[in-house]
Amino acid sequence: METLTVVTKLVNAIEKRDADAVGALLAENISFENIPSGQIVLGKANTVKEFSGFFEQASDIRWEIERQVVNGNIAMIERINHIKLGDKEIKLPMVTVMEVDNGKVSLFRDYFDVNTFVTQTN
Known about the structure:
The chain has 122 residues and is of the alpha+beta class. It has one domain: Nuclear Transport Factor 2, Chain: A (Roll). It contains four helices and six strands. The chain has helices spanning 3-15, 19-24, 44-57, 114-121; strands at residues 26-34, 39-42, 58-71, 74-85, 88-101, 104-112. It has a six-stranded mixed β-sheet.
């Protein structure tokens, strides 16, 4: 599968909050990295667990993609992440870098400003 196809399917699975569909698109050795927090989750099972936990908290997720660049097996997505957490609607500008190997996402790295998130959740 081409990089753009894999990434598009993963974004759709995230927006549907479908952990099984997310897992089907992840490499066994994925590194899921939340750069602002310093959190690094290794492996498919742990990453699916991380997404599942997030899906339990967020009743709605939408990626408003501003720019997307694909070069070989690397995709970079600039977006506004729209997240509904309880009664709060969060709009979080983010950049995600993904690497796709053999049709599966092997790297998922998020960049965002923590203060932008925190000020909207308080």
